[in-house]
Amino acid sequence: MTPSGVLEPLPAHALVEFTGFPHIPSAMDKTTHFGYKQVAESEKAAKVAEVFHSVAAQYDVMNDLMSAGLHRLWKRFAVAQAGLRPGMRVLDVAGGTADLTRLFLKEVGEAGSVLLTDINFSMLREGRDRMLNEGRTPPAVQCDGERLPFPSNHFDCVSVAFGLRNMTHKDQALAEMHRVLKPGGRLLVLEFSKVWKPLEPAYDLYSFKLLPLMGKLIAKDAASYQYLAESIRMHPGQEELKTLMETAGFAKVSYHNLTAGVVALHKGFKV
Ligand SMILES: C[S@@+](CC[C@H](N)C(=O)[O-])C[C@H]1O[C@@H](n2cnc3c(N)ncnc32)[C@H](O)[C@@H]1O
Hints:
Shape: globular
Number of domains: 1
Radius of gyration: 22 Å
Strand content: 15-25%
Helix content: 40-55%
Mean pLDDT: 90
Bound molecules: S-adenosylmethionine
Low-confidence stretches: 1-22
Number of strands: 9
């Protein structure tokens, strides 16, 4: 202030671009898990985004290596369980590099439609480019599985493969998937699950020693693959996920264990 009491203008260098309020965790924040770490709920999506931005370019190669190609069979099984016919409408939530979308497209034909969606632009771009390289131009939409920007009662089938595990509010995401399905439509959830007990020690060794090492050597990112191993352990098992789906309103919920429960395919219907 000047001696006359008038406010002086701030010097130009004092102007700072406003980029939003920083997130300051407070005691009021609910927490959730990010792998084995507890984080504020509001922080989880950004942490998951970092993981998938980091691995997007190597994602497909790593999937083949880590699963010895098995993920292709798990996905084919999921598509076989979708009950699709030509002309149907499918929504692939958290579709990433478009493995399921590309398989669904063959089932629904020219008369049908498959919408590839993902929250992460880097993953979505990989999926879109892959389809463009194959001469296809299906729509790809960047959106959050917990808040789907689609009308109610619209799709014949909704899928989420290896995506639900990464979502902060799984109940909300399942409720959204239920909302956008037509009555009679089905949800497919393909996800890592609880492995057959006798195989646990070998599976733990593989997940916590080999996976991060492969991540370090191939994707130059051990931490993201450590997160993968931890997030699998924190994800609901077969029966818990079945209950979550029923609570979200799905009927006739069933599941198939694949590769001794390393992965499970859950299926449920909107009535
Ligand atoms: C392991 S990848 C699976 C990609 C693909 N579905 C597959 O099976 O290969 C998990 C995907 O979930 C996406 N994802 C995580 N949280 C999400 C959310 N809240 N909404 C939509 N996608 C999400 C990530 O960006 C990532 O592409």
